[in-house]
User: Which sequence fits this backbone?
DNA sequence: CTGAAAGCGCTTACAG
DNA sequence: CTGAAAGCGCTTACAG
């Protein structure tokens, strides 16, 4: 017969142990699902735990043990849909695993970025950190992380390097498929808006585009290619330029949605019907892609899935940190599937041109 | 002359005390900026701290003391620009104060929502929680929070209630100003797309609209008012309906940007020029508002500032929890200034109609 | 102004 | 399968 000894405040492991008539070590074993506890004992303890609403305190577990049950997410651009998706996936996986996600927004060009990271890791002692672009490439961040000996996973880094696990999608393949989609609709003159040279995705997406064009024996017209900066305005400008020529493409594929929306704006201001006069495709499936008319054909990045996997890897490495079964995730590079989202901004080339 | 006693691993308060030749209590005082330490002693300790790169461990501080230096942010809609802004402001203020932000994305209609909150508060023991709509109104969340005795602040709740601090903007005033702006441009027939009845902002914004109309002796035509659900599609539908009537308004004001973008799409599909044939105004200044052509006239909510203030209130209440000077924030309701963002989607009523 | 002692609530390492 | 002891790194309450 158990009885409540203290009703107020939150119960500690000692309270539970006393009520259950076992040692705190046994309660600890049960809470951590460790083997080596009699089924009856385990069930009995579990019952008491439920009854007393006992929840281990993170700070105590963290101080005594080797894990903090905290995962850090470092990001830069706050408005990006990309980060939203990543955070969503990370937070859900964390909850499932009894972990918590601590977010930190930093400026990519902050002079004290290294210290900020250092501050975060040494105070919090997270079991792992997740980096999103462009932080994946920031030497100060990477160095601070290495020095703190905090495990970390990169999401969509520029390139995979040995010893740093990463999760990504296949940008080249996605761009290739999108281009093939346009070609299959009947387009032969296809324009392309590139991203800025200093971002990894830019080159990869252009590569996919030109690869598909070449595969179908179509020329990549220089006049139809423009280099933007991933922002709306550059898409608008690029499209204005491309569409002002004597010969126009019947479709333009932009390296991201924001620029694709710029193309759409350009087309509308020029009185071109989309997709009849001009098909437009983007990349990202940002929220805005479904908030325009016609809705944008685009590529959906597996942001949430990438984040889930990143969390997974970090938790696993924390768990097995000093186990016999060393799971080495340090050279794991995962590639997740994307999704072609065909909407109304692409169609067969019109008859009007 | 100090010398490094242990170079490896991270130094603890004991290490610092030994090197500095003081007690750990003195180091603790210095780290917490407590008064009652000789300036010389303080400076000396500070020097050793810097030299050894000492950083107090959060878990130890949390376990021993009354504060966790953790603030929780509970949100529902992950894609919302609103949440992004709030998080941005919260994370920055937290860093300044040496706090960290733990985020948790929950489903508004999850059956175990109360338990989720309970789990979070009892494991993490955050010094405070921030809630965003529609969680501000969720009885399970509020009850779980109250039971856990975690202080919390509501951002833009439906209504202010005694004992629960809140931060908001003045929706009525903002809608009034936007309407006045349209009227000042010369519009007399102005349509309005309402938000869903179950969201507080809906009624407030409509109130501001009708108040301004009345102030200028203009009628609110029932045929020009439509009730949407804050989503793109409902704006599109509402506009289609309103614009299909014999008499059309020369301007439509939507209760949020997503619906305003729906109006824009409708206008474009009907061949109406914006703003010449139809002026369109939104509410939120979402990212998409600047990603369309013409860019949307809208209202910018002070999301980041609201979050900063919320964090501020929580930190203050945590600090003074058992001080003599009790700052009671429990009945504080702050109202922050918004901003009218006039862009190209509004203009003088055209001559064509 | 400064410090010695106790304790926060867990896990670790060890013993049986 | 179970437990007693020690200790994680700080703050609190107290003493001087």
Assistant:
């Amino acid at each position: 017969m158990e009885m409540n000894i203290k009703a107020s405040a939150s119960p500690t492991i000692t309270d539970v142990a006393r009520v259950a008539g076992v040692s705190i070590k046994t309660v600890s074993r049960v809470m951590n699902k460790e083997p080596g506890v009699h089924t009856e004992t385990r069930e009995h303890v579990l019952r008491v735990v439920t009854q007393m609403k006992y929840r281990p305190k993170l700070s105590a577990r963290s101080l005594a043990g080797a894990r903090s049950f905290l995962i850090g997410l470092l990001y830069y651009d706050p408005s990006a849909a990309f980060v939203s998706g990543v955070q969503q996936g990370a937070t859900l996986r964390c909850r499932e695993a009894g972990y918590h996600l601590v977010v930190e927004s930093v400026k990519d060009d902050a002079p004290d970025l290294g210290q900020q990271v250092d501050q975060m890791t040494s105070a919090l002692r997270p079991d792992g950190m997740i980096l999103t672009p462009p932080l994946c490439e920031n030497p100060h961040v990477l160095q601070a992380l290495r020095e703190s000996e905090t495990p970390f996973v990169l999401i969509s880094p520029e390139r995979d390097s040995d010893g740093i696990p990463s999760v990504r999608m296949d940008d080249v393949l996605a761009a290739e498929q999108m281009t093939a989609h346009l070609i299959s609709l009947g387009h032969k003159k296809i324009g392309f808006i590139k991203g800025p040279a200093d971002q990894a995705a830019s080159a990869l997406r252009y590569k996919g585009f030109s690869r598909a064009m070449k595969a179908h024996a179509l020329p990549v017209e220089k006049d139809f290619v423009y280099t933007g900066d991933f922002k709306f305005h550059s898409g608008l400008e690029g499209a204005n330029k491309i569409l002002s020529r004597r010969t126009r493409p019947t479709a333009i594929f932009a390296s991201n949605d924001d620029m694709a929306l710029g193309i759409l704006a350009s087309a509308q201001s020029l009185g071109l019907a989309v997709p009849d006069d001009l098909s437009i495709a983007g990349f990202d499936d940002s929220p805005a892609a479904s908030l325009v008319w016609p809705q944008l054909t685009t590529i959906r990045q597996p942001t949430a899935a990438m984040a889930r996997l990143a969390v997974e890897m970090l938790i696993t490495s924390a768990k097995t940190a000093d186990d016999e079964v060393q799971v080495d995730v340090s050279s794991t590079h995962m590639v997740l599937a994307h999704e072609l989202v065909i909407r109304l901004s692409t169609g067969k080339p019109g008859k009007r041109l």
Remarks:
- The longest helix of chain B spans residues 303-319.
- Residues 1-7 of chain B have pLDDT under 50 and may be disordered.
